[in-house]
């Protein structure tokens, strides 16, 4: 330790057998020395020794959950290191039957949002799910079934379900248990990368192209302008939404401050209604509303890749509903049957446009996410979407409730 403190570069040197001081300390169970090493230089957790095995791989192999946890916090990037056999630390833990070490690694990946590492394949094309099937580790498979691509195939063209075969010498109850696991886990089908690229663009991909955004995050080759372009689009969309929202609340000419003698008459007015004549008012509100919804549409697409995007999505939806209520409140009284028809058409069309924009965008986003998840390839090559497929039904019910409440408020309640 004293020598390492004086010259840290010695700790990264390998001996003739291909091991560093860190590897040797782990092999001889010198835990205190190992903790001292990472306290001085945390990057030693990812130092590669013989076979490109890092100390994190070694700790995953022996199953020391406490030391493994310390390594992950000391050097988070070490979870992405691969051995010469293209194995991650998760591969190593599962292959050696270290269930607690696997649970620590799984919990870490979920907390740092790097679950796609679970779909990485070794030199034989096996994911962690394949490895668990090979050793009939059903507990690991149950934990992974909602996170990994269940139908991914290895280089032999086999899925984990093909590999998971009950041992004929086992008891019937064990065989039934394994068959039950196979039935429960075997849902959905995967596509090859060639099949994915040969298909037509999805609705979300077409929208990304329309906005000049990339649908693939080609690792190491992403244009540096992509993030700047996204930020610029978001700023412009927010400015347009702000300007149109403010214009809707403060239209040209302002509002009437008092009721006319006969406010329900076509030539009368109520306090809070626009002073513009009906023809100019409907033109202003329609164009201002279209600009407002277009900017919200762009904002919704852009925020769907951000953390807590569901909350932002709900906020945008609430803002659009509030705007529609404001339009109906400030709309001048119609004069004549034609103007009454135009008013009712606008009152019905604007909420329908809002609902269609919110629902269709959400469904397109969810379907695109599910389609990408079925591709038997590394998820890191795709743009980082966050799925919410189980919320489709709730969103649909919520839209119906919103439409019903809005209809009652606009047409049934007394003015």
UniProtKB/TrEMBL annotation:
<keyword id="KW-1133">Transmembrane helix</keyword>
<keyword id="KW-0812">Transmembrane</keyword>
<dbReference type="Pfam" id="PF13637">
    <property type="entry name" value="Ank_4"/>
</dbReference>
<dbReference type="InterPro" id="IPR002110">
    <property type="entry name" value="Ankyrin_rpt"/>
</dbReference>
<dbReference type="InterPro" id="IPR036770">
    <property type="entry name" value="Ankyrin_rpt-contain_sf"/>
</dbReference>
<feature type="transmembrane region" description="Helical">
    <location>
        <begin position="311"/>
        <end position="330"/>
    </location>
</feature>
<feature type="transmembrane region" description="Helical">
    <location>
        <begin position="345"/>
        <end position="365"/>
    </location>
</feature>
<feature type="domain" description="PGG">
    <location>
        <begin position="226"/>
        <end position="327"/>
    </location>
</feature>
<feature type="transmembrane region" description="Helical">
    <location>
        <begin position="393"/>
        <end position="411"/>
    </location>
</feature>
<protein>
    <recommendedName>
        <fullName>PGG domain-containing protein</fullName>
    </recommendedName>
</protein>
<feature type="transmembrane region" description="Helical">
    <location>
        <begin position="281"/>
        <end position="304"/>
    </location>
</feature>
<keyword id="KW-0472">Membrane</keyword>
<dbReference type="Pfam" id="PF13962">
    <property type="entry name" value="PGG"/>
</dbReference>
<dbReference type="InterPro" id="IPR026961">
    <property type="entry name" value="PGG_dom"/>
</dbReference>
């Amino acid at each position: 330790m004293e020598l390492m403190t004086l010259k840290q570069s010695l700790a990264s040197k390998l001996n003739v057998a291909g091991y560093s001081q860190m590897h040797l300390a782990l092999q001889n169970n010198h835990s205190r020395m190992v903790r001292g090493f990472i306290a001085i230089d945390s990057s030693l957790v990812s130092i590669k020794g013989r076979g490109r095995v890092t100390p994190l791989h070694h700790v995953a192999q022996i199953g020391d959950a406490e030391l493994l946890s310390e390594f992950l916090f000391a050097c988070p990037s070490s979870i992405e290191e691969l051995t010469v056999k293209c194995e991650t630390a998760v591969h190593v833990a599962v292959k050696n039957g270290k269930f607690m070490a696997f649970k620590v690694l799984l919990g870490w990946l979920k907390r740092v949002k790097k679950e796609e590492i679970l779909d990485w394949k070794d030199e034989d094309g096996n994911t962690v799910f394949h490895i668990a099937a090979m050793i009939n580790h059903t507990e690991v498979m149950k934990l992974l079934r909602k996170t990994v691509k269940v139908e991914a195939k290895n280089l032999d063209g086999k899925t984990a379900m093909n590999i998971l075969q009950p041992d004929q010498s086992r008891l019937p109850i064990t065989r039934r248990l394994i068959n039950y696991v196979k039935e429960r886990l075997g849902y959905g089908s995967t596509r090859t990368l060639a099949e994915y690229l040969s298909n037509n663009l999805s609705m979300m991909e077409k929208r990304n192209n329309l906005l000049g955004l990339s649908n693939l995050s080609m690792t190491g080759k992403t244009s540096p302008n992509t993030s700047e372009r996204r930020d610029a689009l978001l700023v412009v969309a927010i400015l347009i939404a702000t300007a149109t929202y403010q214009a809707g609340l403060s239209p040209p000419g302002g509002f009437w401050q008092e009721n006319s003698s006969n406010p329900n008459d076509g030539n009368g007015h109520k306090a809070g209604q626009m002073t513009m004549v009906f023809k100019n008012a409907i033109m202003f509100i329609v164009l201002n509303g279209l600009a407002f919804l277009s900017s919200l549409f762009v904002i919704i697409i852009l925020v769907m890749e951000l953390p807590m995007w569901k909350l932002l999505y709900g906020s945008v939806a609430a803002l659009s509903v509030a705007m529609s209520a404001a339009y109906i409140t400030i709309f001048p009284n119609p004069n004549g049957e034609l103007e009454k028809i135009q008013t009712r058409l606008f009152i019905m069309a604007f909420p329908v446009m809002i609902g269609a924009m919110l629902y269709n965008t959400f469904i397109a986003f969810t379907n695109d996410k599910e389609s990408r998840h079925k591709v038997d390839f590394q998820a890191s090559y795709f743009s980082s979407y966050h799925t919410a497929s189980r919320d489709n039904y709730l969103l649909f019910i919520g839209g119906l409730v919103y439409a019903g409440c809005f209809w009652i408020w606009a047409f049934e309640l007394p003015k």
